[in-house]
């Protein structure tokens, strides 16, 4: 395979998901193909609030379908096209898009001969149904350069950025800020990013009632709101393609994103419980002892994880029977304790592994310019092995078949697809579909798709779930639980998790979490304040790290109010009882709180499946009329009820909490009521994280169970008065795909004036509502 002088074909440039064997959108003619003095502009509606704009010099490129990620069919129903004064106007019930008229180009001045762009200019604007301007694209760019042997372009577009516009999403960035305004976002998957792994999901949501989906999987630089402009620039491409999604609420925008790229499946109920992991459990007996340790202590636990190097060699896709002599029996014992299992499967193959030669011969590994497998990179010492080329549908199908036959057959339930960024960086190399630079960010979508589709086909009534640490547009449809990668075990790392997670969920991917306590070996600076927990009895870290139990408790408290709750780390012990005698009872209480709230949390998961909206929510989503929340990244909503304010400073026993305006709030611990629109100082002793509940909330709670495998009765339905409220309580069997056909729902309705709570149908548990109601403050 020769790289130099490669001709970029139209098929390679405009390759959509159909070219890589994934579900493809139906190819349709755009509603209109405009000519602006040689710049071809295609307008393609997908819904009343979703429109795609494609700009190219080549007509065929402008008309070509989207790239990988979007899967919806275009739909111009209800849209009209008219021309006024040379401008083209496209209208629906939700949007008006105007492609501006462009005057005939005049001869350039002497200055313009040097500075004038060669592209025929294009500008356009998008307004909502009320005529309010949402965004204005002011120009586009194509700058020629050569990348990985291809003569191609940097392609981009610029948009006006009002002073009061704020920006969220774009995947995962761990720089510690929520609002992306005024920053450069290098949108690429990068494990070694200095602050923690970055993940590119090129979907950006604003506080102005719209979001932009950027349709290009190459490395993309984004400068949101910098010098009064927002600029996108992909490093490989021959056209500009993007979608605008509008909404009266942010949830309308996320419903549009789900319509465009796929719904978010409901994870199995066990995925909402405690997931216990360690890097690594070295034997079958060690793993079973940990599981039994939870049961003996009466602590709830749902999933045990078998992490890496349970195999004989990287790429064998086997189980080392020296240390795991009976994996099927091990999983049977876990099931008998009401637990499930997740097992780590890596996409790399050592040269000495049994499948390497076959994969190389078939061309199913990432290749260099000469067609040879790329076997590791000289960056870190864990780089051995070649990367399976998951852009190839045959390779994906083979990979799933080996996982199914070699590993799932031993009773493992779900799969941890590690290194989905991938760790073997594809830049400078080649996938089967083309340059690793052109498809820089695609791997996590196609790699998880192979397992999701295989599981759906071969285990049709068993609910899929995949643990993954990178994502791309549409990755949510593959059943992923995403996490922030191998972060450090420090207070600084904890602080950075909060805004990182909020931007990730703001990118349309609802299920995110972090390695509780950090993944890296526990090591941090000396505490600057009195330590709040005695480390006596700690085995999880060296006794030199005297504040590590305090850090772990704070991290655990925060994680109880994230979509997934997973303990993991590269340390001697990770289990709940290994952080010292003082920490253990506090951790146990917070774990029980998670299970108490399971009816509420699982119902939130169902709502995300129905709506596409995340349930870990930055405050801008729910309080658009309060400008003070636009940049708050250390507080968030967990569903419609809870305002969460994590404690992320060592020795901190108080913290300020801003209560958004427009509603009253209840302190969850004291039931004291506060009016919103102000900041209060809140007590935060080590056993308590500030939590508030919005007035007009309904929170169903459950009795204690040892895992979600038990049928959980409701303990109470708590009502926080102050406004009318509705909450859809949901339940199902927790493991099958029956939820797609309905499940058991009951809409709980609170009438604040009559102070009455009713249900529109029988409760999923069969209990009578009357004996469960608890009205706070009464």
Descriptive account of the structure:
This is Glycoside hydrolase family 31 protein. InterPro entries: DUF5110, Gal_mutarotase_sf_dom, GH, Glyco_hydro_31_C, Glyco_hydro_31_N_dom, Glyco_hydro_31_TIM, Glyco_hydro_b, Glycosyl_Hydrolase_31. Residues 612-699 form the Glycosyl hydrolase family 31 C-terminal domain. Keywords: Glycosidase, Hydrolase. The chain is built from 13 helices and 42 strands. The protein has 778 residues and is an alpha+beta fold. Strand 5 and strand 6 form a beta hairpin. Helix 11 runs parallel beside helix 12 (583-596).
Strand content: 25-35%
Write down the overall mean pLDDT: 95
Shape label: globular
Largest sheet: 9 strands, antiparallel
State the distance separating the first and last CA atoms. Answer: 75 Å
Record field, number of beta strands: 42
Per DSSP, the total helix count is: 13
Main-sheet strand order equals 4-5-6-7-8-9-15-14-11
What structural class results from the helix and strand content?
alpha+beta
Stretches where pLDDT is under 50 for at least 5 consecutive residues are: 1-11
